[in-house]
Model the fold of this input.
Amino acid sequence: MIVAVLSGKGGTGKTTVAVNLALSIGEELCFLDCDVEEPNAHLLLHPKISKTTPVYLPVPVFQEGKCNSCGRCVEVCAYNALALIGDAVLVFAEMCHGCGGCTYFCPTGALTEGQREIGVITEGRAGKVIFGGGRLRVGEALVPPLIKNLRRREWGTAHTIIDCPPGASCPVVHAVRGVDFGLVVTEPTPFGRHDLEVVVAMLDLLGIAAGVVINKADLGDSGVRDFCRERGLPVLAEIPFDLEIARAGAAGTPFTERLPAWRDAFRALWREIGGIVGRARDRGAQR
Done:
């Protein structure tokens, strides 16, 4: 089972929920930190990193003296990463998405394929949790290739929890593709409801079943609960605004270590997600 943990914005408690869920289950599983622009799951999981692998993206390299100024490469580049200036092609590497179209269509071989590093993948372990995380190179804007590299690796576990980037943008879509369930963490505020609506709409478009965890549940208003009731979204857990939980997070400690009674709550959450996914699979098999 693959469960993606999402939120409409940063700071909602997404990583806190994802990490404490992973540590409470008590089974060997994979945890992927796909928030590659601001990875922080390691601050709570404290995995022992065993391997760091650079991730490269193919980019064109211009070969002087071979260009006939036909402009074909510029025409096929959908991202405007190339410009023809006289008899030379200027390459804007940061805008290149690595599709290879320019090198394929160049009739003279004036463009060859090079590579540039866009980030790294780290692998490690924290107890029964196999950890995989991505970290985007400073100054890099192209996030999806790093997330796709992280997702397509074989981790050898039956279950995976994905800590997604916040929001509902392109990186999030790449992080949640092919998951069995989307667990959306939100807060009971007008902004929390707005962001929840956006994330749920994205999951609906992708055909992914969703459930909600309300963080700081004893604050705010009823807007989030009203939306969940209107949409038939299950509220699977509620976490109060608690000083001990805040202290644990500030110390870089999963709050289930300080408040072990919460482990049972997270195990129950995992079982409930498993039941929803199982019933959905049964319905699909009957069609």
The CA atoms of residues 3 and 181 lie 5 Å apart. The first strand starts at residue 2 and ends at 7. The domain at 64-109 is CATH 3.30.70.20 (Alpha-Beta Plaits).
